[in-house]
Amino acid sequence: MKIIIRLCLYSLLFCSSLPFFGSGTDQILIPLSNPDKPGTVSINHYKGSIHVTGYSGKTVMITANYRNPTNSNGMKLISSSAVTLSATEKNNVVVVKVNSYRRTIDLDIRVPYEFSLIISNDDNGDILVRDVSGVFELNNNNGDVKLFNVSGSAIISTIDGNILTDFINVDPEMPMALSTIEGQIDMNLPGNANISLKMRTEYGEIYSDFNINIDKRKINIRKHKNTRSTNITLDGWTYGKINNGGPEYLIKTLNGNIYIKKKK
Amino acid sequence: MKKEIIEKWMAEFLSPDISEGEKEELKGKLIQSGYDKFELEDMENLYSMLDEIDVPETSNKLDMNFYRSLELYKDAISDKSSHFGAFISSIFKKKYVLRFTYSLTLVVFGWYLGSWSGRIDNNNVKIQLMSQEISQMRQVMIYTMLDQPSAMKRIKAISYADEFENVDDKILNTFLDTLNNDPNPNVRLAAVEALSRFPDIQFVREGLVKSILKQESPLVQVALIDLMLKLKEKASKKELTRLLENRDLNYSVRSKTQETIRLL
Questions:
Q1: Mean pLDDT of A30-46
Q2: ipTM, 2 dp
Q3: Is B141 a member of any domain?
């Protein structure tokens, strides 16, 4: 326990010593308590894009680029008013704090290949994840969420953005959920994945090149212990199975199309 | 010549009841069989002399002793046979053997049936106990998983309830709590889906209606509005009208709300 606390303190010291003031770019390196084990990065962002890429290193590397404000009159940012990037690490969980409430900050993050991500963003940028294996909980209200060359499982939500996922491998146990209001959902899956799909689009269409066993009128029958009532409903969802079926993937959009593609 | 026949001839020869001619004939036969003429005459003389010997009279005492011993012997024999002997012999009488086999079979069959039915009862009780324990364990698991920081695990917890034949009020209340308080919109969506299966339960229906104004994510708002239309819940009109008063309401949600109020 003492070692962990000491490591946390060291990492905090290390982090605060690194930022490059005045260059419009901040960078911090966060060492991990257990460098050989998978970890998690958690970021609550407001404005800007977040790009996460897996690499062969053992530390988490965060670079913050301040996007030139619109009233810069074509000039570069030389100095910002306060240090806005900090991070803490405990038991391989890295919590990043960025004060992007007033300014747009684009984050570029390098993580070891096996890492999970909990990222939320509000505006002014996309969330993009590349070459990482883990659990991804991503929420980007007004931008796209794109995953390339990843494995594991994902829970993604956006309101105005599109969702694109490109999975090499999926966790055979974990469910997934992808939902958007305005955007389209584009899901690339390995051909041998065993998945049960539950999909719905209000004003769009669903397409797939998988041989999906569609069960459009799945009847839900549920009993309740006290009232002993049985409820049967026909719902507006489209149910389907890829290969033998497996954990449920909930895919929902209001105004976009849904594409379930076989990864080639 | 057989010895018995010769002895028979001898007995007839010595008997006083036969005629002289017969006597001569037997004498000839005996001489032919190897008896001497003089030997035969000696035998005849000895036999006639036997008749002349005085035979002493038996006393009354001897008679009494003899008959008493005889009676005693008879009693001893009959005593043995009337108890043990009679019992043994009665057992081996055909009808008792049949009865005995029949009752033994009944006893064995009854014992087997008893132990068998006892086993069935035990198994039924065990199965009932086990299924109760499993459902309790699952409920505990759902509560524990819903407390996890990982949204993936919380979604999985809700999907476990899909496998339940019977769901009790406690679980449904927990799902209502998740619907109103979970930080992840996809977990809230999963809660809406899980609760939508129990529209006949009054407190679930009321909870869903009340939840409309508590939601900030357009994803969950849309899911609830859809559900109100599906359930034809007229009581939700008030909530939906108040939702329209929110200036920040998403455009798509606004138009969907207006359409739903019109259809209700």
A1: 94
A2: 0.78
A3: no
Burial A222-242 (b: 16+ CB within 10 A, else e): bebeeeeeebeeebebbbbbb
Chain B residues with beta carbon closer than 8 angstroms to that of A222: 167, 197-198
Nearest beta carbon to residue B152 from set A137, A226, A229: A137
Same domain, B168 and B219: yes
Domain tally, chain B:
4
- Ranking A90-94, A95-99, A157-161, A222-226 by mean pLDDT, the lowest is A222-226
In this structure, the answer to whether residues B83 and B27 fall within a common structural domain is no
Are B206 and B256 within one domain? yes
Does the structure show a pLDDT above 90 at A155?
yes
Contact A252 B219 (CB under 8 A): yes
Copy the structure tokens of residue B39: 């030997």
* A vs B: CB pairs below 8 A: 94
Question: Is B131 in the same domain as B27?
Answer: no
Residues B227, B176 within the same domain: yes
A23-27, A68-72, A150-154: the lowest-pLDDT one: A68-72
Contact A112, A52 (CB under 8 A): no
Res B2 pLDDT > 80: no
Give the integer Cα–Cα distance in Å for A192 and A194. 7
Is a pLDDT exceeding 90 seen at residue A129? yes
Same domain, B76 and B41: no
> Does A10 have pLDDT greater than 80?
no
Same domain as B259, residue B154: yes
Where b means 16+ CB within 10 Å and e means fewer, B196-231 reads: bbbbebeebbebbbebbeebebbbbbbbbbbbbbeb
Please give the residue range of the domain that contains residue B109: 93-135
Of all residues in chain B, the one with the smallest CA distance to A137 is B151
Are residue B161 and residue B220 in the same domain, yes or no?
Answer: yes
The answer as to whether B140 is a domain residue is no
Closest CA to A166 of A263, A259, A253: A263
**A115 contact partners, CB below 8 Å, separation of at least 6:** A38, A39, A40, A41, A54, A60, A132, A133, A134
pLDDT digits (tens, 9 = 90+) for A179-234: 999 999 999 999 999 999 999 988 888 898 888 888 755 555 555 555 555 544 44
Tell me whether residue B257 is in a domain. Answer: yes
Residues of A in contact with B230 (CB under 8 A): 233, 235-236
CB A234 within 8 A of CB A182: no
Q: For the segment B220-251, what is each residue's pLDDT rounded down to a tens digit?
A: 999 999 999 888 888 899 999 999 998 888 88
Q: Which residues in chain B are contacts of A255 at CB distance < 8 A?
A: 252
